[in-house]
Structure formats: structure tokens, C-alpha cells
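ok so I'm stuck.
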Amino acid sequence: MIKIAFIASEAVPFSKTGGLADVAGALPRALASRGAEVRVFLPFYRVTREADRTLSLSKTAGAAETDWRGGRVRFGLRVSHQRGYSVHFIEQDDYFDREGLYGTSAGDYPDNGERFGFFCLAALEAMRKDSFRPDIVHTHDWQSALSLAYLRNRFSEDAFFKGTSSVFTIHNLAYQGLFPREILSAVGLPDNLFHHEEMEFYGRVSFLKAGILYASAVTTVSPTYSREIQTPEFGCGLDGLLRHRSEVLSGILNGVDASEWDPAKDRHIAARYTPDKREGKKTCKADLLKTFGLPIDEEDIPVMGMVTRLAAQKGLDILADALDGLFEEKLRLVILGQGDPSLERRLAEAQKRRPDAFGIRLGFDETLAHKIYAGSDLFLIPSRYEPCGLTQMYSLKYGTIPVVRATGGLEDTVQEFDPETRRGNGFKFREAAPDALLGAVRRAGKILRRKDLWASLVGNAMACDFSWDRSAEDYLRLYRGILGSP
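replied:
not stuck anymore, here's the structure
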């Protein structure tokens, strides 16, 4: 039995800001169902404590100590037993009992380097306290990457971790955890790591670089993204290092939680439906239009949905420039999200100009998100880059056809529909430009008007399998390869 220690900064249902939480919440369960022994290590945030009070997610499991900033620091341990695996929380209120996970609307917490340095070290100490000797330590993004620096530099002679290998998964290379040189001494790592062949990155310390350097294997969340980040365009200054480590770099596509995202079971939507009985989708569309205050008419005008951060990375500026052209195509657009204030203003102004065709809700609403996936005909994702993307997988499951820019995981999961062969599950465009986006929407519109072709396309979409079963098998093969076992 392979023993795996997941170290992550967030995981559903305990804490979440993005897709990392979905992965850290679902992949351990899929691995455990295949016989692995998995323990997930998370910070015990204020938001986790608040959820714990109502859901009884964890129980106290004692305490431990570690050397920290010149003294011994004590931290609490809590544990939550999930389906087949356990979650272990590092409780240190000075660092984690705060409003947000990484910061507030005013910006990141200035001591994030210390906070997550402590978390990484405490997670390793918690394993020792519980005598859980992992075969694989699997870390995710910069917040947990320092665990690998500690294993390499602080625990290199520790018999407990002898034989432990590691995996580092990059969910988004753009977020690197950059801090001044002084962070090394603050988190108890030697100053000689401030070197271009170690953790130094253009005059600062990069936690993410430590993960890339010190892991036995490095993964990204889609095959295409693993290739893209080895280029100057997408490499964020680390493309040279990633090319250097290309032999241990691979892309494994994320999955989606089928128990949460399934129109046949979804408790959030107006009517449930299946690939064979899709009548409920029409009811969901009417409900979505009503929710946004848009007219319901007999013409059955197409609805295009988005659930997204309002950011340039997500291509929202491209969308904003394309809005007039989109409305000429006689469709309706609904958006749920928040982000860049300037983009929020642009979209709000556009909504005032076309209240009959455009609905927008700023913020995040889980129920409304499900309604958009179920009630839309098309789902737009114009990202400039997208390491994996989960929203296109959700939309396919709901028979809502994705229109995406061909990058990262969007390239891997969406295949252009061919009306001749009736193969494919969506529409793609390559240039990050309004005209390219409009071209893909127009191709989708032509197929939508052909009911027979559209039915085939929706059938293809709903037949796609992006469950965690496939991804878990890929990870297990990777782990076994690292350990040299069959």
C-alpha cells in the first residue's frame, strides 16, 4: 500500500479560493478508493473553524512542537476522517486565525512567507509525531513547496524520512511566492540557498522554485500546460529551469467531482435531466433567464454563460471588447464573478446599455453557478492562459457547449465540432482577440440552428468522462514509477 502525504493550503469542504481546493478535496478520495493510504495536511483557518462549528468536521488530536524563530513553538493538531482518507489540520492561531486565507481586499498578508513556511514545517513534524512515514510527499503550489526545501535541507539526515520521495504540482505558475532574502533565516533555512541554482529568483526568494528544484517529479494540471510553461511566453521566468527538469515534468489532467456536478442529481437546478432525457434543460434555461431578469420568449434565443474571475488572465478584457459584436449575434449573456474593479465597471456599464440581453452578478453564489451551467446553451472561456480549467468540464457534463481559447487544459479537453463527422464537443479559437472569439461564437450559432447537429453535439458533450478515476490512475502510475515499484 502506497502511503501519500498531501500538503496543500486549501481543500474543499474546509477552505477554498480556487481550483486547488477542488483538487485537494477530490484526488485524495479517488486515490484512497484505489488502495492508497492518504493523509491531507491543511492549515486550520478561521473559515475552517467556522465551518467546523456547524458541521463538526474535525476533532482535537493533540499537539506538537517545532523549532521556530529561535525557540520551540507549540501547535495544535486536529483530524477529520473523510471517505477513505483523513485530513490533519495545523492549528496556530497567530498565523491562521485571520479573515482570509492569503490576505484581504487590501492585499496579501505581509507575513505570508512565515505563515506558510511554518505550515510546511509543522506538517512534516505532525507526520513524525503520528509515526506516519509517507512514501510520497505530494505538495501543491508555492504555499506548500517549502516542505520539499525542508526535506532536502533540514531533514536530509533524518532517518524517519529516509526513502520518502516527492511530487510537486503546479496549479498556476504565475503565483510564485516571492519574498525578500531575509525570509530564509526567518523560516529556518540556510542563507546559502540564496543562489541562482537554488531558491534565488531575480533578487528574491521563490518558494515555487523550491518545489520545482527539489521534487522527485513535477506535474502540472494538464498536458498542454506542461509544454506551455517550458516556453518564454508562459514560463514566467522559470521556463529555463522547467526545460532543465523536463525529464521529470509531466501533465496530468484534473478531474471533476461527479457527485457534485451531475444534472441528474443536482439539488441546485430547477429540473434534473440526463443524456437520454434532456427535457429538463429547457426548464433550467427558463429558470436562469428569470433569475437574471431577462425576457423569456418563444424564439428560444441562445444563452451564453460564464462563471469566472473577472481578470485579464481569464480574457475578460477580450470579452468586453467583443460585447457589441456578440449582441449582434442575437444571443443573451449571463456572467457570475468578481475581480478587477475596472472590468467590473466596464461590464456593469454594458449591462445598463443592454439590460434585455446581458445579466451580471458580482460575487460568487454556488447555487447560481449550477443554474448557469444547467441553463445556458453555450459556455464561454476566453482565457489568455488556463493551466487546466474545470468550468469547461462542468459545462460539458451539463450539455452546455464550451467556446474556449485553445490554451492549456482547454486545448486538452475541448475538440472542435465537425458537422461532417459529428465528432467533437465544442468550439475553439486561438488568437487572444475579439474577432477570433466572435468567429468561434458564430460557428457555434450556425450549429445551434441545426437541431439535428446540435443534438449530436450535446450528446457528445455529456458523454465526456472527466472523472477523478482516470486522473487518480495516472497519479498512481507516477508514484509507482518514482518508487521503482510495478
